[in-house]
Design a protein that fits this description.
homodimer, alpha/beta, six-stranded mixed beta sheet, four-stranded parallel beta sheet, 11 helices, 26% strand
Chain lengths: 429, 429
Amino acid sequence: MYRVVVIGGGFGGLRATRDLRRAAVEITLVDRRNFHLFQPLLYQVATGALSPGEIATPLRAVLRRQRNARVVLGRVSDVDLSARRVRVDPLVPDEGEGTWLGYDTLVVATGARHAYFGHDEWEQWAPGLKSIEDALAIRRRVLSAFEAAEVADDPAVRREWLTFVVVGAGPTGVELAGQIAEIAHDTLRGDFRSADPRQAEVILVEAADRALPTFASGLSAHAAAALAALGVQLRRDCRVVGVEEGAVHVHSAGESDPERIATHTVVWAAGVQASSFARRLAEASGASTDAQGRIRVEDDLSLPGHPEVFAIGDMASVADGNGHSLPGVAPVAIQQGAYVARQIRSRVAGRHDAARFRYRDKGSLATIGRAKAVAQVGPVQVWGLAAWVMWLLVHLLYLVGFQNRLFVMMRWGFSFVTRGRGARLITGD
Amino acid sequence: MYRVVVIGGGFGGLRATRDLRRAAVEITLVDRRNFHLFQPLLYQVATGALSPGEIATPLRAVLRRQRNARVVLGRVSDVDLSARRVRVDPLVPDEGEGTWLGYDTLVVATGARHAYFGHDEWEQWAPGLKSIEDALAIRRRVLSAFEAAEVADDPAVRREWLTFVVVGAGPTGVELAGQIAEIAHDTLRGDFRSADPRQAEVILVEAADRALPTFASGLSAHAAAALAALGVQLRRDCRVVGVEEGAVHVHSAGESDPERIATHTVVWAAGVQASSFARRLAEASGASTDAQGRIRVEDDLSLPGHPEVFAIGDMASVADGNGHSLPGVAPVAIQQGAYVARQIRSRVAGRHDAARFRYRDKGSLATIGRAKAVAQVGPVQVWGLAAWVMWLLVHLLYLVGFQNRLFVMMRWGFSFVTRGRGARLITGD
């Protein structure tokens, strides 16, 4: 039987696996986690609007009826391109040593992590948002900051606790900043007796000259207005030059000196870097990588010189028609997963499919807050309530699992009406 | 203004606080967590049936409209009975040192932790179930064991991974064992390709001569039958004499030697011990404690010699009419909270309320699995579907917050129909 190994159960890997459900292949999907995570809503877990279980679906549940697929939980530590096999190490140490898994075609979809531009030491004070653990850590920090403000006697100290800095005004940064502002102004109103959460300052720092730099500039202006209405302070043309315990240092264009912002809560939503396995794969194959560590693949998403290995999603660098590389978003990964599945089906059938991968951009969406969003669909720009409804529908549609869709919809309904948040627990250490 | 300090936002502390909402007092509720946890359903988080957010409610949200109450997040580290004050240390180290909080009446409701009969070293292999973190750790262990079995090549190793031991057949132990058996036989059926989860062995170890020893023996027999139908192996008259990496040692009455059960998944549901603050309070007041470290209080739940200090819930030892001490369950704590609030209202009004605390036992409930439960209401014994419906209704009724009730009800509906579990994620390290 033709053996396909898929590494990573994110948008790309899962789509490739599902699209091969009727193919005469044996698929092994390897992931370190036992669930598919709907990353676009992770920021809502970080702000207590949703619970982790509502945006994650066990991979085994998704693939239960797909008899040609099996799921292996493990960490892929190495690849042997000449022998066509990958090494899978067990997650639980007791489980014995790793095993080699042979493939006829390999699909690598191991995603990306947040990156700190060479300042990994910043991570301890400015966590990023890629995993459920990240989201719960940010939720703990944000909610704890309000608690600390409540018991602080010194107004200066209280002010530091009520200052929140989000770095990066891409969709995730904008959404996070908007949600933190809503928590402060709506959700927690009346919850505290000493510190007033409405005095919170939410600062969104962006190195480019506008929020949502990948959107049309008209939509950036709408987003900026919506952020301002929520009380978020947007600092454009402003770079983070340092993060330390209790402060972040930013440098605005035109200023001679950096500014120190005293805060205990910094969230990192700027910059990503391909997973470490991308580097290993590049080394093994001699493929080149871009600045973010993403592997430059061929037109058909295969590794140069290795048509039997595909790299897709956030870890692959693919040029669009205009010479820019495609963004690391779910629709790109999904379309690449579907494309790769088509290629594999052709190969199994003994045909050659010469069609190169083409990304069909169906549009971009970003939400800022309650009933506020921006959407760009080709040349059409939509904002306000209409864009927000589009955002809601698209996210519900792509969420995996009927139960999750229903629960998320209900949570949103409750939050919209009560301005509350169902999951604002401080958990973990 | 009359100052009431309540330590602990569990069933007892929260009830006392809420029942004082119309009293001319200033209440400070101190807790280490920002939420009230519905502990009776914690085992459902441990088995992936519910999400943490569904059984927890932020204390601030509960008390938002109660203007005479404020919530302080902190750790109570000391008490000064003569000066009538408690020391509250901040949870976040940066927040400065602790402060002393004065009271006119103190209500201590700091609960209990699981205990290992002097073998604290067992905890690393046999975690107990008292906090959300405990529940998520157990969920991770249970679900990971099935994953490890899937990749194990050696049948003996696979068997070890598919062996689950629950220690203690009280309500929590019975519920946990039943749920693990249902996960193995129903939820995960078809999810794995190599190891069949239905081969899992779930062993429930109980030192007494029957399951649910606090229930009538007829109900114990019903519970035992329901457990057997689920495939749970009940070992009665059996004591755990050792826990180590990869095994638990048990000693059955009548056997000359202990038996070694090879397993990687042990859950501890036997034995609790009053919180460490109970010891501190006993030291400070000279009050005596029982074998579980619970403080022996007066008929009116006050500390001997300190009518201004009440101890309630799992940390207090109170005799019922027959000389037995009341069990550490939610109804006891709730009734004690209500009683203490009445006492405080009388004192504030300058009256003396001589009524001693009396526990009104409305009954006990334990569920074993899908549509199977036992209930004891005074002399009446109920089992099977009827008891299960009672169990459902009582738990939904006592769950705090309309949104939580609705979500839990829906999760249960889904689980009942699909035999699935909405939250079976492996998270954490």
